Amino acid sequence: MLPTDLSIDDDLYMTHGIQDNIRYLCADDIDELCIEDTRTLLDIDKVRTAEDTIITVLPTTELIDWQHKRADFMAMKIHKKSPTVKGALHSSNAWIYWHHDFRKQRLFVQRIRILDEPGGERDDVFVGLVLSAIREAQSWALPTVVLWGVASDLPNRFDILKTRLGRLNPILQTQRRETTSIRWRGGKNDKTDNIPDEHYAWN
What is the pLDDT of residues 46-72, one digit of tens each? Predict the structure, then answer.
């Protein structure tokens, strides 16, 4: 969980490339990105070994949009208007989606998709995308941004945020109330990993 009481000034935007490298996404932008994301995940699945027991819930437009429509419905009831910004796209072909939970007073990050970048560029992109989510939460007076297991190394991601954003104090929780429900027929009762384990798969 990330508190949104961080003061995001012009220097912070410039340092992490918010103004130059990121544009915000609306609902019409989502479908094309979901198609590309799903294709990429299916290609990765082809190289996994037969011994791996991995479940992947694909980030389809239907899943992403269902959470957006739920947020829009609650927003109209509470605020008489709905959010138009659904995420952000980085110039490196990385992106983030989120949805607003006005009942829980949280902005849930649905998905962060970052391809491998050389050196520390991947971390720079991650910080920039997270800052865009914090900014969106602030615009709706939501006190918390919630990230699930981004790239399966959330503790490392939090360390990066602490290092880059000294005024941010993320809170790491090992348990959560929300769960991902999957119907699996004919599978063995083996231990499984859900990869990627992100909030878009919550249903």
Answer: 555 555 677 788 899 998 999 999 999
